[in-house]
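Work Package 3 (structural annotation) set out to generate three-dimensional models for the target panel prioritized at the project kickoff. During this period the team completed the workflow that converts sequence records into discrete structure tokens, so that structures can be stored uniformly alongside our sequence database. As a representative example, we reproduce one entry of 137 residues exactly as it appears in the project archive.
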Amino acid sequence: MRPTVTGVLVVLFASLAGCTSSSTTSDAGDPGAGVLSCFDASEVVVARLQSAASTLQSCATDADCASVEPIMNCTARDVQIVDCPVAVASTRQGDFAAEIDSIAADLCERIEASCHSTPACPDLPSAVCVSGTCELQ
């Protein structure tokens, strides 16, 4: 099976972050499972961030859109997982921030300590409205 672009980006994302591919969970995608390695945590967090952003992208004009950089911090465990900027509706930035907080509440205690994951992101400076959906271009 050929990997999807998202799968390739997640693997690249985790590799660039210095995470390992070993897992201490039976299912890295299951937030109810045990301790998450940095690699597995990065995959789960990025997938949840992208899913959340995709529900917050409705727009009518370019002015309706904003570029946000998702950063999930778990200060007590020295964990920071960053995703590439995403476009969301300007009026929904607070909802996206709340989703990041929700992800952190669900996962922080389960991520191995001292996990720092930051991807190499393409330079996409502007959030614009394309056919009713905010996108970065």
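The CA atoms of residues 69 and 129 lie 18 Å apart.
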